[in-house]
Each structure stands twice: as C-alpha cells, then as structure tokens.
Amino acid sequence: MRRRSGEVFPTEHVITVLNPQSGWEGGVVSVVRDISGRKHSEEAFRQQDLFIQTVLDRLPVGLALNRVGEGTAIYMNRKFEEIYGWQKEELTDLNAFFEKIYPDPFQREAMRRRILADIASGDPKRMHWENVEITTQSGEQKIVSSMNIPLFEQNIMVSTVQDVTERKRYE
C-alpha cells in the first residue's frame, strides 16, 4: 500500500465473506495489517543467515554437522567436501561416508568400530583422531586430523577435519 507521504509499505490482507444466514448477505470483513516490522525482521534474519553461511563456507577447516542418533549429515561446508573429495550429497549418511572414505573393507570396519566406540564413550579426548588415512573419489590418498564435538542436548555432532597430508609428507 501507499502512505499519504507516498511511501510504499507491505501489508497483509485477510478478507472473510460473511455467511448469508447471518443477515449480512453479500457482506465481507476486510482486515489490512501493516507488516513493515515483520518484513524488516525477515530481511535482517536473511542477511544474518547469509553472513553465517558465507563465514562457514570460507573456513580453512572442513566442518560438518550430523544428527547423532540417525547418523545423517545436516550440513557440510565447502572445505569438508574439498578435503574428502566427495560431494556432500554422496556423504549424507554414516554408512555412505564410511563406504566411500574407507574403500578397504578391513580399514572401514576398524575405523567404524573405533569412531563409534569413541563417540559412545562421551570422552572428548577420544574424539580427536590424528593421521587418519582416507581415500577421495578420485582415489587420492590423504591424511587427515579430525575432531568431533558432541552437543548431546541437540542430538548433534560437530565434526571438523583438516588435511595434514603435505605436513606428514614433509615430516
């Protein structure tokens, strides 16, 4: 709508047709509400969300958020995809992750047992893994360090990963 000053502002309209049996045949009730404040808040949240998304996608470490009970990924940043060499859609559940990252069935099962036991322990010291060998989609071997931070109240695991391949080769 337009104010007397000429300023255009967002509104919400609710129109209800009155029941003819009420004696108001052909009548309507119209409510118009100024929603400028709500639109301003929505835009502020959108800008904040864009800022947070930009920061997370540009972190120098891989970051993923996973649902603990279901073992499903709810977020992965670009660096996480880059380090593991797989698109996030291909790593959305724990089984797919283990199968793709650890193609050798013996290594896969050993890592699965170790990681799940460490997570189940609830001991943060056991959720930091150094020098883990992984395989990317292209078959490249990498060495990573990973840390998981459980947020049990939210049923979420925050996982970070760093590619330490070059450092290990140098050492």
Report on the architecture of this protein.
Helices cover 35% and strands 30% of the residues. With 171 residues, the protein is α+β, with helices and mostly antiparallel strands. The strands form two sheets. A five-stranded antiparallel beta sheet has the order 4-3-7-6-5. A two-stranded antiparallel ribbon has the order 1-2. A hairpin with a 4-residue loop joins strand 6 (141-151) and strand 7 (156-163). The N and C termini lie far apart (68 Å).
Provide a compact summary of the structure.
By secondary structure, the protein is α+β, with helices and mostly antiparallel strands. Helices cover 35% and strands 30% of the residues.
Major sheet attributes: 5 strands, antiparallel
User: In sequence order, what are the helices and strands, one letter per element?
Assistant: EEHEEHHHEEEH
Question: N- to C-terminal separation?
Answer: 68 Å
Task: Estimate the mean pLDDT confidence.
Answer: 88
> Structural class per helix/strand content?
alpha+beta
